[in-house]
Prior knowledge:
The chain has 325 residues and is of the alpha+beta class. It has 2 domains: 9-148, CATH 3.30.1330.10; 164-308, Phosphoribosyl-aminoimidazole Synthetase, Chain A, domain 2, CATH 3.90.650.10. The chain contains 9 helices and 10 strands. The strands form 2 sheets. The protein has a 6-stranded mixed sheet with strand order 6-8-5-9-7-10.
Amino acid sequence: xxxxxxxxxxxxxxxxxxxxxxxxxxxxxxxxxxxxxxxxxxxxxxxxxxxxxxxxxxxxxxxxxxxxxxxxxxxxxxxxxxxxxxxxxxxxxxxxxxxxxxxxxxxxxxxxxxxxxxxxxxxxxxxxxxxxxxxxxxxxxxxxxxxxxxxxxxxxxxxxxxxxxxxxxxxxxxxxxxxxxxxxxxxxxxxxxxxxxxxxxxxxxxxxxxxxxxxxxxxxxxxxxxxxxxxxxxxxxxxxxxxxxxxxxxxxxxxxxxxxxxxxxxxxxxxxxxxxxxxxxxxxxxxxxxxxxxxxxxxxxxxxxxxxxxxxxxxxxxxxxxxxx
Length: 325
């Protein structure tokens, strides 16, 4: 994502003109004004870099007619969520945009506006990337870069039998928001669709030294909890009645419970917390405006997730999560 310095836009190849119009204003100091094919990044003194990458494809990860500014914000936020799960602070990002040649300039303008809005919220800037054409669909990839104190990154590996399972926010809004977008569920307030289109990465929570393991809920609560179980070599048990649901999700009714537990796109944090430490962590998160709820515990035995009701009877859930392939 580089552009010759000082060239008149009319004399530039269309790619460079597009970069100059829409992406150069997003660039930070390390991007070298997007004049080079690489950025120069100086990490904060005494910190370790944390990097993650996620892609979004039209028709797979978002609806093709979703507003471009919202698509941009979701792309940035789902990557920021990966940093949040590790307790990292955002620094900057690299972006790759592949779009059909007939994509209107107005789409790129709106896409850039969405990025600019969230750059201001999350204090990050564009460092560089690439723009290419494709027969379609629009394909987007973002690499997020953050930092943590040495050895402070919270990993997926680390849960132990006896640890409690805690989650931030509410679960199921993303999946129900997709259902609402597809006309399968009423969403009179627009709350569910908003949660699906523009998630809230839980950055800045004091997880280091308090959470044994963490993951963001992108592929579904049950599936992502299963990832923690496999890395820990243990199982987990969650109580369906303790899983926090928004008012809008509760209004959808119990028939949508399986979608809430297995639907994904929530981008809340799922944590393993040693017994007796969760309440203090929940209080600390509450001061930051983020609710934290205990929903179960990790158990000895098979590396599987069991859902139980108030009578401790097993609840069968057919859908456990999203598969990328």
